[in-house]
Amino acid sequence: MGSELQKELDPLENARLQFEEAAQRLKLDPSFVQIIKEPRRATIVKLPVQMDDGTFRVFTGYRVQHSIIRGPAKGGIRYHPDVNLDEIMALAAWMTWKCAVVGIPFGGGKGGIACDPAKMSQGELERLTRRYVADLIDVIGPESDVPAPDVNTNEQTMAWIMDTYSMHARHTVTSVVTGKPLELGGSAGRREATGRGVLFVIREAAKKIGLSLKGAKVVVQGFGNVGSVAADLLVKDGALIVGVSDVKGGVGNPKGLDLPALMGHLSEKKTVAGFPGGTPVEGKKILELPCDILIPAALENQITHVNASRLSARIIAEGANGPTTHQADKILNKAGVMVIPDILANSGGVTVSYFEWVQDRQGYFWREHEVNERLEHIMVTAFNDVARMAEEHKVSLRVAAFMLAIKRVVDAIQLRGVYA
Ligand code: NAD
């Protein structure tokens, strides 16, 4: 891969460019840029774990708090062989902007352990998780830093984190972590929250450009938690899902796929590929199917300078984190495509994580429709705040979302003052 292309595909480089463009537009005092650019704290822990064969292995774990200006650090923990400090620092900053853009009272954090969970037993993963929590016992906490699931961690991992933290505290502390099972203080509606949030911002975007969702053609790349929930809810609003794909392949039908039948095929075959109600679509070609709305909900770097001009959608709602490169973003902007940026479009997940933390702290749990109504209020308000910023400054929704988020953090610093 050429070094230019390598640079285009570096999500951390993309995040840096996004931050800098917005900071410049805001004409920020460089001393404030200095304060918010770097994480406030990065902790590295060495974690000895006894493996099932009796030997010991030492793993490296990280927890980065980018900002706690607006509230406790918030962000997931990932288990992956490629986890490293640079990546975790960049992802922690992203969380600061994501929480600020939806106006929830959290800062940004991220954690991870360099490990290969596919090659570890449940027992090894449990011991690794508990040791990580024990070593970070003074770093995380309901008032200081609240982790959540990310790549290769799940409800079970969160349950172990909650239990370990609680054993040290000598009482049960459910609000130390979100994304827990319902039985242990999880929130109703958390599983669907990100896909539902994608629906709410698409509704607002469609209103803005005068597109009716009834009969609107939608393509969804990635049919997991985010993509499948968004597709299901859009169909209930009258949209036609004309293409879906997952890691094994895709399927398209310009007249609309039969979603219940597709879900049946998915639960039987574990993939949407080969669904008989449409024609096969290979790889990234799914993004180029004629449609009104495109939802990339799989991976980063799917829309690049190579395919951006071939897309037909009027609205792109980024369910995934970082699916559009900086270069592709410029091309789409010029073409007048409304791109709802990841930090806004997929923030339904962290928003309901916030609701989980609130419910745990008050020890009183909301019904699912209450969670959904509150989520809708936050997503609709955030979309309109970003759209207003974009109109005022004549910038894209992405630049506006970063500007709004950075401004909220800087305003908080100014109000608090810098303690010296
Ligand atoms: P998931 O694992 O449930 O689903 C991912 C889907 O993408 C699967 O269908 C998988 O087969 C598909 N996929 C993987 N590689 C692909 C490829 N090359 N081409 C097409 N499809 C491919 O994950 P998820 O929770 O739905 O997350 C999807 C994206 O949304 C990720 O970028 C994630 O970071 C982001 N996100 C998720 C949440 C959340 O709450 N789940 C919140 C914010 C952002």
Could you explain the architecture of this structure?
There is one protein chain. The chain is an alpha/beta fold and 420 residues long. The protein has 2 domains: 147 residues, Leucine Dehydrogenase, chain A, domain 1 (Rossmann fold, 3-Layer(aba) Sandwich); 234 residues, Rossmann fold (3-Layer(aba) Sandwich), CATH 3.40.50. 45% of the residues lie in helices and 17% in strands. It contains 14 helices and 12 strands. The strands form 2 sheets. It has a 7-stranded mixed β-sheet with strand order 9-8-7-6-10-11-12, sandwiched between helices. Strands 1-2-4-3-5 form a 5-stranded mixed β-sheet. Helix 4 links the parallel strand 3 and strand 4. The longest helix has 26 residues. The model has no long low-confidence stretch (mean pLDDT 96). The site of nicotinamide-adenine-dinucleotide has 19 residues, from helix 8 and strand 7. Keywords: NAD, Nucleotide-binding, Oxidoreductase. Belongs to the Glu/Leu/Phe/Val dehydrogenases family. One of its GO terms (molecular function) is nucleotide binding. This is Glutamate dehydrogenase.
